[in-house]
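Priority: medium. Attachment 1 of 2:
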């Protein structure tokens, strides 16, 4: 898997634009950097099916927090 950014739910009071979510570059990486994460082939196939079934697009959340289902991501 190739990870590009992290989107955290932090609360409106903690972000400059007053949004619930904060999208950031990865820690200890250059701006725009990526992180390669190895995955077991079986889990990779499961994730691929999930992405296809949910029709996820670039920028969509793959892993959601408990309140993310009802909150739109910028």
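Attachment 2 of 2:
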């Amino acid at each position: 898997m190739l990870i590009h950014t992290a989107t955290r739910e932090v609360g409106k009071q903690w972000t400059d634009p007053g949004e619930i979510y904060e999208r950031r570059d990865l820690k200890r990486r250059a701006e725009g950097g990526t992180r390669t994460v190895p995955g077991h082939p079986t889990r990779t196939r499961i994730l691929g099916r999930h992405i296809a079934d949910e029709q996820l697009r670039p920028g969509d959340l793959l892993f959601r927090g408990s309140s993310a289902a009802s909150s739109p991501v910028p």
